[in-house]
Write a structure and sequence with these properties.
The complex is a heterodimer of chains A (about 160) and B (about 775).
Chain A lengths: L3 E7 L2 E7 L5 H8 L18 E4 L2 E4 L12 E3 L12 H8 L9 H14 L5 H7 L11 H15 L2
Parallel strand pairs in A: 1-5
Antiparallel strand pairs in A: 1-2, 3-4, 3-5
Chain B lengths: L24 H6 L14 E7 L5 E7 L1 H5 L3 E6 L10 E4 L2 E4 H8 L4 E2 L5 E7 L2 H10 L1 E6 L6 H4 L26 E9 L2 H7 L2 E9 L11 E6 L5 E5 L4 H12 L6 E5 L15 H11 L3 E4 L2 H7 L6 E9 L5 E13 L6 H7 L9 E9 L13 H19 L3 H8 L18 H10 L1 H4 L6 E10 L4 E9 L5 E5 L7 H13 L6 E5 L16 H28 L6 E4 L2 E4 L10 E2 H7 L7 E9 L5 E11 L6 E11 L6 H20 L30 E6 L21 H13 L10 H14 L5
Classes of the chains: A alpha+beta (about 160), B alpha+beta (about 775).
Chain lengths: ~160, ~775
Amino acid sequence: MAKHHITATVNGDPVEFLCEPQETLLDALRDQLHLTGTKEGCSTGDCGACSVTVDDRLVCSCLMLGVEAEGKSIRTIEGMAQGDELHPLQQKFLEHAALQCGICTPGFLVAAKALLDKQPDPSETEVRYWLAGNLCRCTGYDKIVRAVLDAAAELRGA
Amino acid sequence: MQEKVKDGPSSEFQVVGTRPVRPDGADKVTGRAKFGADFSLPGQLVGKVLRSPYPHARIKSIDASAALKLPGVKAVVCRDDFLEQSSEFIPAGEMMINYRDVVRNVMAREKALYEGHAVAAVAATSAVIAKEALRLIKVDYEILPHVIDVVEAMQPDAPLLHEDMFTAGIEPTPKTASNVAKRLEIGHGDIAAGFKQADMVIEREFTTKPVHQGYIEPHACVASVSEDGQADVWVSTQGHWVVRAHCARLLGWDIGKVRVTAAEIGGGFGGKTVVYLEPIALALSKKARRPVKMVMTREEVFKASGPTSGAHVRVKIGAKKDGRIVAAEADLKYQAGAFAGSPVQPGAMCAYAPYDIENVKVVGYDVVTNRPKVAAYRAPGGPISEFAVESVLDEIAAKLGIDPIDMRLKNAAKQGTKAAYGPKFGPIGMVETLEAAKTHAHWRTPLGKHQGRGVASGFWFNIGGETSVSLSLNEDGTLSLTAGTPDIGGLRASLCMMAAEELGVPLDKIRVQIGDTGQLGYNFLTGGSRSTFSSGMATVEAARDVMKEACKRAAKLWELPDDAVEYSNGGVRPAGPNAGKHAPMTLKEIAGIAGKTGGPIVGYARINAAGAAPSLATHIADVEVDPETGKVSVIRYTAIQDAGRAIHPSYVEGQYQGGVAQGIGWALNEEYIYGDDGRLQNPGFLDYRVPVASDLPMIDTVIIEVPNPRHPYGVRGVGETPIVPPMAAIANAVANATGVRFTDLPMSPPRVLKALDEARAKGTAKL
């Protein structure tokens, strides 16, 4: 099967890659672009470990084909920190010990950023429902929710 | 942050008890950390497994010739590629393993014993080709009748999984084969005499379903075998020395030829203590002479790894009017899956462990069924038996009109109590957790409509075991710490903190790594809540080794006897009569003279960590039950547990909260659902419903510290106990809210609604 040539933007950088027609965006990111920060937990869109944004929309990259990335702007966990500066969400996840094993963390961070970009002052309930598509088996979500609320407050300058 | 850690002994420390950012943190929030599936080698092949579609079938033949002809296919392996193993049970942490069965679980031999059982595997140049090759492998199956349920499997006419299984633990050994691998019994006293003294006896039967560990990262590894037989494996595992031993044994290779590197591990909870893909990847790599990468799908994880046992449990408890328990009995029937080795033994030992009871008898049965072989899952066996016991205790307390915490206090095990499973307890925190529960604001918070409150306690042993750690003093005075127990939830932070505390150096001067199997002596796996305890103990010993050596080097320089120099405040100084004779030297200065005073300074500890101590917990759960749908929501939760000492309190709280969340899933939603065809109907996260953020409240925690006298910092393992109390705490809360006692897990909406409707018809429901 012939591979498709895809041109896209990933974390602000222009990228080109070849991918098979049935290959998911997740596989293209991990296997073609070697961006392994985006994780595969289920490949059925149930766990959120593969969360990325495509043109600022939060998606499970396991549910999207690589070929659909043509011309799109994709953001992954690798693009969240700016130079030496961790994003406030990343910093708060560390301060609150909001990760144990860390496999779900990239997905949570990407999803949480997508939330705060839309809603800078979410309630605890809003955070819990927004992040309901991201599974964490280690933390019980308590420290994750606190970290997101704290990062939101910091970003608002509160 | 949440409850303040109980002040006291911790305040004597500079580092221990604080909450620094973990050393592996930046890598984990930026996507840099390499987990099992993130590692690749040049030229690697993709390995895939062909799995049995039948729950029970004899494998008459396997023909891979067509698959091997497919361009891009480089190797196929099946049962013929793994050595036959003799039957011999050997301890594997909290569980026992038998290599005769391990080799058959890795790759089916005579029979496929569950849907998803590996039958063959291929390595090919792409995943597409590998999948196509699987389709070309012809397996001739003779389909056999299967059995899924534990009680049915114990019937005399049940389909037999193993024609040579004769129940162990019964004298004389039965002459007919059965699915009961073992009968065991523990206890003390005179159970009949005990029940005669009782004013109230309650006997109930319970069932629990198999639940999966549910780690978010599927099993993954890369194996590479060179032409001279030297092999490397990179793998997500809880114990890479254990992986090395299993692989070498199954393939008949020297242990020393195999090097295993532990990747970052995306959750394990006991499920990554055994091998599935690793020996297959090695066998494929040996045949293909190329590296082979294998990653399970989520469906494979559900069908072919883990879970823990489902069970049938009978509990009978007799008590005096004042709440004193005089006799306690239990029968435990645990599913082992396709091969012997359920956690019924620890389940039996835990059942009544939190209590001081004169007459106890627990009988356990280890039963094979046509399901995936169970693996350890957080406090393996304990949550099942303790769910039943804590439920009956609650019912007795309610019927006697005694506060359930007082009932437990009256019977609580203390230092000196002889446990029904044998030993006398040292200092333990059962009473302290109960007293903390009683005084906690949660216990007095008013409940609303359709709400109920439950309390339950829990026990786990914790283990120690073989452990090695090295600590190098670098040329500039910084330190490199190498441990061998994979870090699943903040271990590196805790080890660094203990080393910094001992050495009196800033935390950021120590870099900690998890070494591969070539870098240290043997390390048993991360499990049994042993890593902070055992690797912590070894780290302290290694640090003291560095400190002692630093004193020696200064003594040499100062021309003093070794014992005339002491270590203090991150450096050395002359002591005793020589005090003040030389200016103190910092560790950095000692590092600078290492070369000319004898060479590199390396602290090393190789221990079999003894003195692990149990951790006890008491949990309070509030639930709200929807009378129309039967949905149970946990609205308030407090986990109180004895940590011995919390090295990094945030990660101790995290263990409590994570265990509670898994327990809530076990209580309310999670279950393996099988069709009559013996096939799993919910092998995905959509239908196997683990708790999500919107399902849970904040989980309050209280860390009790009753130091373990056998650990230099008082550490007890904390990881496993938190999953023990939730099922009973929630069932007790549901009973409190509805007037209906649930003895079958999970308490999922359809089941709760049905029971509520029945109770309403009888007029016994409270809502």
